[in-house]
Amino acid sequence: MGGAVGKVVSPKKEWIPETKLEVKMVEAMRRREAQGTSIKSFNSIILKFPKIDESLRNCKAIFEQFDEDSNGAIDQEELRKCFHKLETTFTEEEINDLFEACDINEDMCMEFNEFVVLLCLVYLLKDDPATLQAKSRMGMPDLEATFETLVDAFVFLDKNKDGYVSKNEMVQAINESGERSSGRIAMKRFEEMDWDKNGMVNFKEFLFAFTNWVGIDDNEDDEEVEEKD
Ligand SMILES: [Ca+2]
Ligand SMILES: [Ca+2]
Ligand SMILES: [Ca+2]
């Protein structure tokens, strides 16, 4: 078999997950995929936008509940307490990973949109047998239905089921829908979702994009106080 010597096998471009959390997200996504998705077309995702919008806005009440000192952000201590209340089986390390992953502006606080993403990740990850306990604890059927929709939408878009939506997969989903005009918009949206421009969108990026699209932002009433040393 000397013939193969020296032959360079070009590695398939593969995504290397950055954190254990990301690995878990991908695994959870695959489990969901195995259960089947309720989303069958690109347009059905779009049709669900208003419902998603409404129910994500309702997260505000939960957010305020966890924001004990009512400063408009949930700090690590407050988050720990809220995980405690939910009786999740997340470890300290996992909670910290979730916090870091969702603290996009790196100010060590969960603002509202970051919190929405975090809740949805908790929802996704709780189907891990180890965190199953948390399942009934969320007690927000409406919100859970929305998270379910978001997970299903992602699973629908992720054609090759590797836990990431690539640009090609987005194109494929749009072509299937046969709606060219919404297709153009969708591609623009994909560019928005793909922050690091690596041509892949993970579930977290997907969720953040949603909180933007449905108009959730928390800048309504807080003034920017920035301090640099
Ligand atoms: Ca707070
Ligand atoms: Ca933050
Ligand atoms: Ca994929």
TrEMBL record:
Q: Which InterPro entries match?
A: CML21-like, EF-hand-dom_pair, EF_Hand_1_Ca_BS, EF_hand_dom
Question: For this protein, what is any one GO molecular function term?
Answer: calcium ion binding
Question: Superkingdom of this entry's organism?
Answer: Eukaryota
Alphabetized UniProt keyword annotations: Calcium
Answer whether the UniProt record assigns the keyword NADP to this protein: no
Show the PANTHER family listed in the entry.
TROPONIN
Q: What is this protein called?
A: EF-hand domain-containing protein
Q: Which source organism?
A: Dovyalis caffra
